[in-house]
Amino acid sequence: MLRLFAGLIFLSVSGGTAQAVPSQEGDFAVRNFTFQSGEKLATLRLHYTILGKPVRDGAGHITNAVMLLHGTSYDGQQFFQPQFADVLFTPGGLLDPEKYFIVIPDSIGHGKSSKPSDGMRAHFPKYGYDDMVAAQYVLLTQGLHVDHLRLILGTSMGCMHAFVWGETHPDFADALMPLACLPVQVAGRNRLWRKLAIDAIKSDPAWKGGDYKAQPREGLRTAAVLKLLSGSSAWQMQKQYPSRDAADAFAKSRMDDDLATLDANDILYQFDASRDYDPSPALERITAPVMWVNSADDFSDPPELGIAERDVTRLKKGRFVLLPISELTHGHATHSWAAAWKDYLAELLKISAR
Q1: CATH class of 2-185+277-351
Q2: Average pLDDT rounded to a whole number, residues 12-21
Q3: Which CATH number applies to 188-272?
Q4: pLDDT band for position 21 (50/70/90)?
Q5: Where are the domains of the chain?
Q6: What is the 3-state secondary structure (H, E, C) of the chain?
């Protein structure tokens, strides 16, 4: 079942005016979805936003579809922040909705798609990245009747999903642009901060095995702190909060916001979903051109590991770019600041054009 809701996205343009871009939000209901764990959900709701209109060839196939995949604990609305949308969705921009049919799903467990906080709490199926990609495939092919993509662009978790897509559906997309991740099992410091956040929630007496009546605030606070630090940029934070008082005020404001909006079960599931991720044994299966971009100030995927430089050689048509620390980079969150990497997206679209 497919439901659509019309709306507008407003982009900033020169002169202080705003450009309205038509959008549609929708929900696609997948019946009896089976997870890798063997668990089933009678109805899996997949929420999404679309920009632009599909262009079809003589056989009726959509030829201009692009999919954008968001990061952990975010949703598709991430891509409507000015640092992304005002750079790429503008008229004549690299992802101009007048040219592309842009599909932005909320992954399982995120946004308005099915998630633990909808009611099942800790009894929600234990989803992983393979499940999330499988659901995206169903949404595209059965819900939106898209059987080929011009581009998959993914940030952080979406970056990892892009690698999974490249291996499980190697002919589905003309190009892949993974931003801010590594194609190996989530281990070391990247797994450590996630595990510490999970344990903090579970060890809070108020958690009650996930059946809490009030949020386990202390465990949730620790998880929120770790999440904040994992995505931070030392340079940007020093510039934005150059005094002790400024840093303290930001810390309080951020924690107040997070504790008012986050759900402990949702966060716990989101942080643990990467447990089944490990595309490293099969990178040679990826045949599409790949433009893979990380930044040198990334806490979760630090460049000193040397993993990207090693593994990019296994991609048939892959290029890895490490952005040096600059005013354009924002730590792990550089993935959403399009000005830092838009030239590489332009190059990818050019070399992958048919």
Answers
A1: alpha beta
A2: 58
A3: 1.10.1740.110
A4: confident
A5: 2-185+277-351, 188-272
A6: CEEEEEEEEEEECHHHCEEEEEEEEEEEEEEEEECCCCCEEEEEEEEEEEECCCCECCCCCECCEEEEECCCCCCHHHHHCHHHHHHHCCCCCCCCCCCCEEEEECCCCCCCCCCHHHCCHHHCCCCCHHHHHHHHHHHHHHHCCCCCECEEEEECHHHHHHHHHHHHCCCCECCEEEECCCCCCCCHHHHHHHHHHHHHHHHCHHHHHHCCCCCCHHHHHHHHHHHHHHCCCHHHHHHHCCCHHHHHHHHHHHHHHHHHHCCHHHHHHHHHHHHHCCCHHHHHHCCCCEEEEEECCCCCCCHHHCHHHHHHHHCCCEEEEEECCCCCCECEHHHHCHHHCHHHHHHHHHHCCC
